[in-house]
Amino acid sequence: MGKLDNRVAIVTGAAQGIGRAIAGKLVEEGATVVVADLNGDGAAKAAEELGGVAVQADVSVEADAQKIVDTTLERHGRVDVLVHAAAIVPFVPWDEVDFAYWRKIVSVNLDGTYLVGRAVEKPMRAAGYGRIVNIASNSFFAGTPNMGPYVAAKGGVIGLTRVQATELGKYGITSNAVAPGIIRSEGALATPHKDSFDFVQALQALPRHGHPADIAPAVSFLASEESGWVTGQTLVVDAGHIRD
């Protein structure tokens, strides 16, 4: 028996990295998972491996956000869990960030969280049950350099999570955030962040690099019945880097 038996979950950004690890963990715990990602081929491959459904979607586009939820309802008739992990991880010094780049990063990392969360709320409200888990970042607490729009957007994700918890709790919906530290995901390793792991490790309580599988169990807990008395919270999962 898994703690997510008979649950239907949407995981955005699930073609690779943290999102893929989360999707795998939810399936391991018994859930049926809908894999949503801008990378349609990657989503299809992940869905095939997980026995789920793939949706190619840009979460920053309202119609695509709605398509993810509509496809889930058409295939499964319900949606119990949303894990919003879709993100762009930048590495641009503050004085090189122009407004077009700012909007690109914020539109995916914050607008996408709003749009998919808004689309999934209606069926969850009708069912009287829902678990929303938004992936934030410990960079919000650290003020990590070269990530200005990302840090601002992830701070917005934490704020939005609190608002969702307050306004949706009366419908049986919880909303929490998980804030990972630096993780050896495909996205991070494709940027100059790949050179930061040893430096960050020296700041952690646990002296090793983080991997996508380190994030998935925290998300699984917040997606399950076990977290029924937990909402509006941000769980920092970063090997003790941020200790406030």
UniProtKB/TrEMBL annotation:
The keyword Oxidoreductase applies. Pfam families: adh_short_C2. Keywords: Oxidoreductase. CDD domains: SDR_c (cd05233). SUPFAM superfamilies: NAD(P)-binding Rossmann-fold domains. InterPro entries: NAD(P)-bd_dom_sf (IPR036291), Sc_DH/Rdtase_CS (IPR020904), SDR_fam (IPR002347). The keyword Oxidoreductase applies. One of its GO terms (molecular function) is oxidoreductase activity. Belongs to the short-chain dehydrogenases/reductases (SDR) family. This is Short-chain dehydrogenase/reductase SDR.
